[in-house]
Amino acid sequence: MTYDLIVLGGGPAGYRAAERAGEGGLSVLLIEERAVGGVCLNEGCIPTKTLLYSAKLYDGAARGEKYGVTAEGLRLDHAKVVARKDKVVRTLVAGVGASLRAAGVTSVNARGVISGRNAEGYTVEAGGGTYTGKRLLIATGSSPSVPPIAGLREALERGFALTNREILALKEIPAKLAVIGGGVIGLELASYFCSAGSEVTIVEMLDHIAGENDRDLVKLLQKGFEKRGVKFLLQAMVTQITENAVGYEKDGVPGEIAADRVLLSIGRRPNTRDIGLETIGVLTERGAIVTDARMQTSQPDVYAAGDVNGKSMLAHTAYREAEAAVNDMLGKKDAMRYEAIPAVLYTNPELACVGLTEAAAKEKGLDVEVVSLPMRFSGRYLAENEGGDGVMKLVVDKATRAALGAQALANYASEFIVACGTFVELGLTVEEIQRIVFPHPTVSEIVREAAFHIK
Questions:
Q1: CB neighbours of 280 closer than 8 A, spacing ≥ 6?
Q2: pLDDT tens column, 323-342
Q3: CA atoms of 126 and 251, how far apart (whole Å)
Q4: Which fold has domain 2-143+269-329?
Q5: How many CA atoms lie within 13 A of 383 on its CB side?
Q6: Percent of the chain whose pLDDT exceeds 90
Q7: What angle do CA 184, 187, 193 make, to 5 degrees?
Q8: Do the domains 152-266 and 2-143+269-329 match in fold?
Q9: Does residue 455 surpass a pLDDT of 90?
Q10: Average of pLDDT values for 382-393?
Q11: Residue 354's closest CA among 369, 338, 368?
Q12: CA 117 to chain centroid
């Protein structure tokens, strides 16, 4: 049988594409080596958020006195937290499988490798069989980057150093956790393990954490971490991993961090090696598959979506890329845009952003006005955050009055940043945002309040 579409990889991009294509009337084969859902569902987004919610409940109870709530005998049972995480993952994986079956998608649980093309299309070998598809969508995702640090690979092999996959399966909380990398994964897991009782130290090469997020908000986030006991070593380079420590160099001076476990979280690389791209001549740059706005690669009827194209390694980006690709296959006009993709750090509080920061806008040569508003302007925020120091920023083009970006450090930031993304996507002006009615009292009202503070 020749399928209309073969999808290589069952993560967010892969399963969403397979489902949409099946619903659109195409015959679809989905090939996934591990479990459907990919890293996000099995080892990333969902598992970490499950852990972080337990930590949020614990932190709230532990600090409840200022709200008139006192808890006694409070403890976080990590084993039960992990058991619940596993249950949530199983439920969602089963749900994805059911959706794929309902869409008529055929699934093969095996490693797939592209083997070439024939008169009918592209061939893929998996589980001892060879399959042919008129079209091919590559959604093989990404893997943790492993730098050439002395002793690191050996530490990974003996379980002293862990990636996000292994650390989520730990049954016990390490007394001392060293985190290499102050990005999204490192900060979220540092937040959980700090709440759970670990002494956490984060080592970061840059002079700041949290990547390209707004620096003012990042400083506030770091300050909050430090109040909870997390230590930071910025502008420090890890030089080696020993039997029970992490060696580093800062300002030319060597140092060492004693640790019971080490989390490696310095980024991810697209999974483009050893999947047969060379057999059909798919173009890559810096290890990522090159795609256009329709998610087409350099080869006809070959698409790529998700982390494998290296554009925006976020699950929600992968969903949208998959939809754009399938719409193109079905003859529906569509194009992928990256200007208004929200990103969130699910720490406590959350740090969310969309569009351009003030710094990024100025780098583009744009003349912008920025309002930075304390979250205390929101009645709901003030009611729920005694002593909170959250901030909302809105970046506006002075010439057009259109919203270019927004950033927020606050609880619920992940839930209302989508409104800001809509404003950026549609190019709404300050005046148009002011006319939108927000429910009261909600934390999201801070967005409208910010619009009224633009001159």
A1: 114, 116, 117, 122, 136, 299, 302
A2: 999 999 999 999 999 999 99
A3: 50
A4: FAD/NAD(P)-binding domain (3.50.50)
A5: 7
A6: 100
A7: 135
A8: yes
A9: no
A10: 96
A11: 338
A12: 34
Tokens of 353: 């952003």
- Overall fold of domain 343-452: Enolase-like; domain 1 (3.30.390)
Catalytic amino acids? Answer: 440
pLDDT > 70: percent of the chain: 100
Residue of 341, 319, 313 lying closest to 184 (CA atoms):
313
Among all chains, which residue has been given the structure tokens 């009292």? Answer: 441
Full 3-state SS string of the chain: CEEEEEEECCCHHHHHHHHHHHHCCCCEEEEECCCCCHHHHHHCHHHHHHHHHHHHHHHHHHCHHHHCCCCCCCCCCHHHHHHHHHHHHHHHHHHHHHHHHHCCCEEEECCEEEEEEECCEEEEEECCEEEEEEEEEECCCEEECCCCCECHHHHHHCCCEECHHHHCCCCCCCCEEEEECCCHHHHHHHHHHHHHCCEEEEEECCCCCCCCCCHHHHHHHHHHHHHCCCEEEECEEEEEECCCEEEEEECCEEEEEECCEEEECCCEEECCCCCCHHHCCCCEECCEECCCCCCECCCCCEEECCHHHCCCCCHHHHHHHHHHHHHHHCCCCCCCCCCCCCEEECCCCEEEEEECCHHHHHHCCCCEEEEEEEHHHCHHHHHHCCCCCCEEEEEEECCCCEEEEEEEEECCHHHHHHHHHHHHHHCCEHHHHHCCCCCCCCCCHHHHHHHHCCC
Q: Over the stretch 203-216, which tens digit does the pLDDT of each residue have? A: 999 999 999 999 99
Count of other CB atoms within 10 angstroms of residue 407: 28
356 — alpha (psi -120 to 50), left (phi > 0) or beta?
Answer: beta
pLDDT per position as a tens digit, 245-266: 999 999 999 999 999 999 999 9
pLDDT in tens, 428-441: 999 999 999 999 99
CATH architecture of the domain 152-266 equals: 3-Layer(bba) Sandwich (3.50)
What is the tens place of the pLDDT at every residue in 9-55? 999 999 999 999 999 999 999 999 999 999 999 999 999 999 999 99
Structural contact between residues 315 and 12, judged by C-beta atoms closer than 8 angstroms:
yes
Query: Whole-model pTM?
Result: 0.96
pLDDT at site 434:
98
The domain locations on the chain are 2-143+269-329, 152-266, 343-452
- Count Cβ atoms below 10 Å from residue 25 Cβ, excluding itself: 10
Query: What digits encode the pLDDT tens for the residues 222-236?
Result: 999 999 999 999 999
pLDDT of residue 167: 97
**Whole-number pLDDT of residue 368:** 98
